[in-house]
């Protein structure tokens, strides 16, 4: 089984494309090469595949990166399933993971939520989507400053609060307060729960 994330940038028409697209490409390149592992297409949509264990953390890395830029957000559909055909271009690959993810993104555009997951297990879908709806009430309200800190923590899990304070030229207590406001410890616990539920598929 693999995880496929299909997403689109919310409010992309109100932002400088070159800024967010360059940063998103740089992030996706950490996880594989285009166009086999990831691709940005139709202006502001993207798709990439990853290991199922990593998918929640990857989602948060993208979410925090995009929300660290003014007025932007991202809609993300996570599909878990098989890859029956692997093309040189991810957008031409196929399997249940791709079908789940692509159809789910269309549903998200209609229902107003910013993230959802679909697997072949209805019980897992129900549990994880309730979790995502609750947690998104926090994620969707991250400020640019909070998003920057969360992104650094996700991408550099060994980084200390002292290192972050130097990087952002603010006090360690300010870093600590931002992490508390963002419920970072709860985010880490949520990632562990997410991985456990997906491992049961």
From TrEMBL:
Official protein name in the record: SatD family protein
Xref: Pfam families: SatD
Gene3D superfamilies with a match to the protein in the record: Homeodomain-like
HTH cro/C1-type domain residues: 150-177
Entry-linked InterPro entries: Cro/C1-type_HTH, Lambda_DNA-bd_dom_sf, SatD
């Amino acid at each position: 089984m693999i995880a496929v994330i299909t997403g689109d940038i919310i409010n992309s028409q109100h932002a400088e494309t070159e800024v967010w697209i360059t940063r998103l490409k740089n992030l996706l390149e950490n996880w594989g090469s285009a166009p086999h592992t990831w691709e940005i297409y139709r202006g502001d949509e993207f798709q990439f595949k990853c290991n199922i264990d990593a998918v929640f953390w990857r989602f948060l890395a993208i979410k925090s990166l995009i929300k660290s830029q003014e007025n932007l957000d991202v809609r993300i559909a996570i599909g878990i399933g098989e890859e029956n055909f692997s093309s040189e271009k991810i957008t031409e690959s196929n399997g249940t993971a791709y079908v789940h993810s692509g159809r789910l993104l269309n549903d998200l555009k209609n229902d107003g939520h910013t993230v959802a997951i679909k697997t072949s297990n209805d019980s897992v879908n129900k549990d994880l989507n309730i979790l995502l709806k609750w947690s998104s009430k926090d994620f969707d309200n991250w400020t640019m400053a909070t998003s920057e800190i969360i992104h650094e923590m996700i991408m550099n899990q060994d980084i200390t609060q002292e290192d972050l304070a130097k990087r952002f030229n603010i006090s360690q207590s300010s870093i600590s307060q931002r992490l508390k406001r963002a419920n970072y410890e709860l985010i880490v616990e949520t990632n562990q729960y997410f991985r456990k539920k997906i491992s049961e598929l």
